[in-house]
Amino acid sequence: MPQRHLSHPEFGTVPTPGSLAGTRGPTTTNARKAALAAFLGSMLEYYDFFVYGLTAALVFPTLFFQVDDPTVATVLSLSSFGIAYVARPLGAFVLGHFGDRIGRKKVMVFTLLLMGVASLAIGFLPTYHQVGALAPILLVVLRLAQGFSAGGEAAGASTLTLEHSPRGRRAFFTSFAMSGFAGGMVLANIVFLPVAALPDEALYSWGWRVPFWVSVLVIAVAYVVRRRLDETPVFVAEQEKEAVAAVPVVELFHRQGSDVVRVMAISLFSVFQSLFAVWSLSYASSDAVGLDRSAMLWVSVAANATAVIALPAMAALSDRVGRRPVWIVGAVGCTLLLPLYLWAISAGSYPLVFVTGVLFAGVVYSAVNGLWPAFFSETFAAPVRYSGFAIGSQFGFLIGGFAPAIAAGLAGDGPWGWLPVAVLAGGCGLVSAIAMATARETYRTPLDELGLRRRPSEPTPAPETAMAR
């Protein structure tokens, strides 16, 4: 079979899928395997990530941040949740570099193990009462390790799945990384429900540790699945042609710097999820509102269970009509629905909280959450895809990570105390929608042309391998 490569002025010679003898292009079988690996790995990663968020909202202010003012303790605890987002950009730079240099699969296995070890260690930490200031220091160190891991997880899982997926179904298969995200949140809430129902003495002594220990059971299954996954045809072709960038991040900012900035702006949508998953739980269970914490966890379970189905459905819709229209409708919808959800919480109306919470986080938010893994991957050319995705998204997610702490400081007293929080989220949502509106549409672009600005004089590359049926 003759070799076919795309000669491009931005990245030199870029191999197309199946361009080397013995290298297969994307197939449905490979896409299913990659989607399963992405689902399981993301489920573990975000189970660990959001177990921390739940304990930061409900338990850690008492156990690790013992100050006289409970509001200050809550802000400090929620800031420890956000501190992981400081490490995410560093993880994006480092893991993105190696993902583009040594392969997507190896980095994905590493991120899985790092998140699992850090989470298990949190479950064995001593509290402030036992070791004083050393307790929050150790907690923050392990939280930074979680953030470093998460900085490369989404980019790796999404890039690997996209490069295994047939054209016309890329968003659908890639969305399973985010279905894993929702599944991880469901699992985190289900595990935490009986823990949250424990008497305070049991909860604060040993109960909060159990969800962190449970992660060991999940990591074993996810590790086996990821180890058995093949590297992507795109990366194998790059290696054999020696087309791998020496320093991917330098190439990235030289060739696609504006795309990185755009992805950062689009990523501000993450504020919605952080406020729903973390801050709203703390707000609802506060003395000022007084909703039952276990009841609020059921809202999260129902919303994320709905999202497991809605995410691939929204992604499949974007495979038919385009990424931009689905995304923009979702971002604007979240901007309008979040105030209604927060108002329902302040009013103490649990039925309305449940309905608006499921509609907001389970359905409307899925219109953006199901698309970004595919769209961010499609934005960048293969030699810098992992780095571009990771760096752009994680710098944008940094704001989302600190949104719960910012919200805790912004929220006022009284029934309308949530209004400044809604304004913050709405501003981020509108910036995200506008940035998406300025982006290039990618859903019909062949895999080998993604991220490339072709000159008319250049030859048209060979089409992708037809989808296996």
From TrEMBL:
<feature type="transmembrane region" description="Helical">
    <location>
        <begin position="73"/>
        <end position="95"/>
    </location>
</feature>
<feature type="region of interest" description="Disordered">
    <location>
        <begin position="448"/>
        <end position="469"/>
    </location>
</feature>
<keyword id="KW-1003">Cell membrane</keyword>
<feature type="transmembrane region" description="Helical">
    <location>
        <begin position="388"/>
        <end position="411"/>
    </location>
</feature>
<feature type="transmembrane region" description="Helical">
    <location>
        <begin position="352"/>
        <end position="376"/>
    </location>
</feature>
<keyword id="KW-0813">Transport</keyword>
<feature type="domain" description="Major facilitator superfamily (MFS) profile">
    <location>
        <begin position="34"/>
        <end position="444"/>
    </location>
</feature>
<feature type="region of interest" description="Disordered">
    <location>
        <begin position="1"/>
        <end position="25"/>
    </location>
</feature>
<feature type="transmembrane region" description="Helical">
    <location>
        <begin position="107"/>
        <end position="125"/>
    </location>
</feature>
<dbReference type="InterPro" id="IPR005829">
    <property type="entry name" value="Sugar_transporter_CS"/>
</dbReference>
<dbReference type="InterPro" id="IPR020846">
    <property type="entry name" value="MFS_dom"/>
</dbReference>
<keyword id="KW-0472">Membrane</keyword>
<feature type="transmembrane region" description="Helical">
    <location>
        <begin position="295"/>
        <end position="314"/>
    </location>
</feature>
<dbReference type="Pfam" id="PF07690">
    <property type="entry name" value="MFS_1"/>
</dbReference>
<dbReference type="GO" id="GO:0022857">
    <property type="term" value="F:transmembrane transporter activity"/>
</dbReference>
<dbReference type="InterPro" id="IPR036259">
    <property type="entry name" value="MFS_trans_sf"/>
</dbReference>
<dbReference type="InterPro" id="IPR011701">
    <property type="entry name" value="MFS"/>
</dbReference>
<protein>
    <submittedName>
        <fullName>MFS transporter</fullName>
    </submittedName>
</protein>
<keyword id="KW-1133">Transmembrane helix</keyword>
<feature type="transmembrane region" description="Helical">
    <location>
        <begin position="171"/>
        <end position="194"/>
    </location>
</feature>
<feature type="transmembrane region" description="Helical">
    <location>
        <begin position="263"/>
        <end position="283"/>
    </location>
</feature>
<feature type="compositionally biased region" description="Basic and acidic residues">
    <location>
        <begin position="448"/>
        <end position="457"/>
    </location>
</feature>
<feature type="transmembrane region" description="Helical">
    <location>
        <begin position="206"/>
        <end position="225"/>
    </location>
</feature>
<dbReference type="GO" id="GO:0005886">
    <property type="term" value="C:plasma membrane"/>
</dbReference>
<feature type="transmembrane region" description="Helical">
    <location>
        <begin position="417"/>
        <end position="437"/>
    </location>
</feature>
<feature type="transmembrane region" description="Helical">
    <location>
        <begin position="131"/>
        <end position="150"/>
    </location>
</feature>
<feature type="transmembrane region" description="Helical">
    <location>
        <begin position="326"/>
        <end position="346"/>
    </location>
</feature>
<keyword id="KW-0812">Transmembrane</keyword>
